[in-house]
Amino acid sequence: MVLDWLRDVSNVKYMCLVIVLYLSLSIPLLLTWPPPMIDEALFGSTAKTLIDDGHVGTSLVRGLESHAYWQPPLYFLALVPAIEIGGYDLMTLRIFSVLVGGGVILLIFVLALGVSDSAAAKLAALLLACDPHFVNNVKFVRMDGLCMLFVLIALAVLFKPTFESKAANGLLAGIVSAIAAFTHPFGMVAVVVLALWILWDSSISLRERLAGIALFLSPLLLGTILWGLWIIQDIPGFTEQLSYQIARKDRSLLLTIVNTIKQYRNVPLALALPLVSLGFVLPRAIRKRGKLGLLALLLGATIVVVVPKFEIPYHVYIAPFGAMVSAVLLVESWEIESRMKRGMVVFCIGAWL
């Protein structure tokens, strides 16, 4: 069960301290760093319109007054209770984000427990809670943070099954994965990798694996149909909004890299070290198959999808898997007989840090 770790009082005390540390790094600069972003106003306004007028739209962008068709409405629905409880302002939105980040840290601890021992889990949670890119960026890229939260919940369902039936657990993981995919497109990375994980399960027959994948993907298919029925009300509006969104993201890779280096001069080093370390870490982790192999595969897929965009906020996706794989390998590296290999693992973890 996902909540089994609560039975160990030492785990509870430790995670309380980690969360307090995380909050102490997040709250003091809650409203000032990072500076407020235009997306925060756009998405917050859309959720506010849903509360006030009962439809998904915003007056901040021409063409979105009546309907914001360009993405599924799950993220806006998630913001509704936060705004109703705390009011419509930047503080409410960012407190919501900080809470989501805390949930990600807790789930990293739970998942690492499912892969290794408590030492690795505690180290993974601590690494993530102290990661400045994660702590700062999760405050304003709340759609990405919420997507990551659902991805980790889906992983937790598979790592620590809730039901005795594999089919029931697969369906539950499929539901949560579909929610992640309909919160942010990155969720599709998790859907694909988890489907491969089910196909990789050698403990059951190929027929059972294919049936499991079909069951796992069924919530995503159902959600796609429902979203399609919503879009079909105004196809021209959807295509216009989608083209605007694509145009907003469609930038020259070279120009993006140059501008990013100007703004974040430490980025090339921050990206190069983890990528170099993966050359040693990923093959070993994947060879182990098992849960660590899945996490390593997810980490690799995340980097392949995220790094070409070269946007700092996407560290919200890389950091959790990076912290978890690094912590597990660091703790388990002492089992390697060769001192040279042991030293290489420690060097790779140092690169992540």
Summed over residues and divided by their number, the pLDDT gives a mean of: 76
Q: Kindly provide the radius of gyration, computed on alpha-carbon positions and rounded to a whole number of angstroms.
A: 21 Å
Q: Provide the β-strand percentage band.
A: under 5%
How many beta-strand segments? 0
Describe the largest sheet.
none
Please bin the fraction of helical residues.
Answer: over 70%
Overall number of structural domains: 1
Number of alpha- plus pi-helical segments: 16
Global shape = globular
Derived structural class? mainly alpha
Q: List SSEs in N-to-C order.
A: HHHHHHHHHHHHHHHH
- Low-pLDDT windows of residues: 263-282
Terminal CA distance reads: 31 Å
Describe the structure.
With 353 residues, the protein is mainly alpha-helical. The protein is 74% helix and 0% strand. It contains 16 helices and no strands. Helix 14 (290-306) packs antiparallel against helix 15 (315-332). The model is unreliable at 263-282 (pLDDT under 50).
